[in-house]
Amino acid sequence: MKRYSPAAAQQALLQILDEVNHKQETVVVTPTDGNDAKSAVIVAKSEWEVLKAALETAQQPVQDAGYLDLDKIEWG
């Protein structure tokens, strides 16, 4: 994973897009104050779509597949 400052990312935008799309690189742009919580992550759109679908699937409620009613089982 490569890291850039905002100014460096702005100057190297075409290189970053190449790294992200052709080399499957993940790029992090970190503010100059070093606050990682305010960083941005750049990934290929295809990778983002996979991640987004996985998040949406994980957030869906689990369907109740039914329950086993012990009173309806024929016990030999």
UniProtKB/TrEMBL annotation:
InterPro entries: YefM-like_sf. Gene3D superfamilies: YefM-like domain. Belongs to the phD/YefM antitoxin family. This is Type II toxin-antitoxin system Phd/YefM family antitoxin. The lineage of its organism: Bacteria, Bacillati, Bacillota, Bacilli, Lactobacillales.
